[in-house]
Amino acid sequence: MYRSLKRWWWLFTGPTIAAFIIGFVAPFALGVYLSFTKFTTVTKSRWVGLDNYARLLSDDTFLHSLWYTAAFALVTTVIINVVAFAVAYMLVKKFKGSNLYRSVFFMPNLIGGIVLGYVWLLLLNGILGHWARSITYSATYGFWGLVILVCWQQIGYMMVIYIAGLQSIPGELIESAEVDGATPRQTLRSVIIPLVMPSITVCTFLTITNGFKLFDQNLALTNGAPSRQSELLALNIYNTFYGRTAFEGVGQAKAVIFLIIVAAISLLQNRFARSKEA
Predict the structure, then answer these.
(1) What are 46's strand-pairing partners?
(2) What is the pLDDT of residue 34?
(3) 120 and 14 in one domain?
(4) Cα-based distances in Å from 101 to 82, 83, 85, 136
(5) Rounded to whole angstroms, how far apart are CA atoms 165 and 199?
(6) Are 29 and 149 part of one and the same domain?
(7) Are strands 37-41 and 44-47 parallel, antiparallel or unpaired?
(8) Are 159 and 200 in a shared domain?
(9) pLDDT tens digits for 191-234?
(10) Do 36 and 97 reside in the same domain of the chain?
(11) What are the phi and psi torsion angles at 215 (to 5°)?
């Protein structure tokens, strides 16, 4: 078997490697190159060096979107993981209807982002209408509207991951803690949470990256209104690339910076979370 794999490995891995290069490596390299050019199409580009990055740093809307997105990702990561863990901790216990509750909490994740955004737009505007306001009245309204929407959508998905982590904890460890006189709070803090850290690592990684990459819901719910003050990074890049003539290179430079920021934060979060795993 080993000799056969050594001889024919290229036959099995070749198509996957080729698809990876064509679908990811080549577009990524081309995108980085285009961030240093002024272009309207991929075949018509002119090298401008760091001009696109200089224009990016002087773009107030981009800098606002950066901090706005960072705050949004932080708030949603904390809320989603705390609530999802609490719900999972309750639903992992055996009681009548627990599977039904799990399905109900998971169902919002099945709805598409654009549809979800328009549904919550109607709901939130209906509520705010009692005070003669709308979701686009201010950036603060848009921020918390997006937080509510994303938390409602993602809590159920993270709950499933936490349930899997909780169910993998050996029952004898919980019983040993109870025999030793540990209170439920002590058991949770000293036994359950350390053993669920792999699930926490996964969930925090997903929620942080999802928070930074959010696009569909932002487009449908506020579309950046008012005056692009509720515009997250992904929507800002989209509007720069497709909404401003001769700014394609700047939009591409923003995408490269966006990639670096998300990759750096994800790696730091992953390293920190793994260091806490039992």
Answers:
(1) 38
(2) 93
(3) no
(4) 18, 14, 14, 33
(5) 6
(6) no
(7) antiparallel
(8) yes
(9) 888 899 999 999 999 999 999 999 999 999 999 999 999 999 99
(10) no
(11) -135, -55
